[in-house]
Amino acid sequence: MLAKAAIEVLQEPATIDSLVQKGFVVTPGDAARLASVATQDYARWGKVIKAANVSI
């Protein structure tokens, strides 16, 4: 599965180092974890974006 392969690659020290050097924060997890974080971020930042009347 693609998800399993992606998780394996993201656990490799070289991959983690490369991403961290580019400013990423590597947080291991599965699709359910990503969905949870996205939902929390949307709830938090959605209010800020709407209050600031930001649009793209």
TrEMBL record:
It comes from Xylophilus rhododendri. This is Tripartite tricarboxylate transporter family receptor. It comes from the Bacteria.
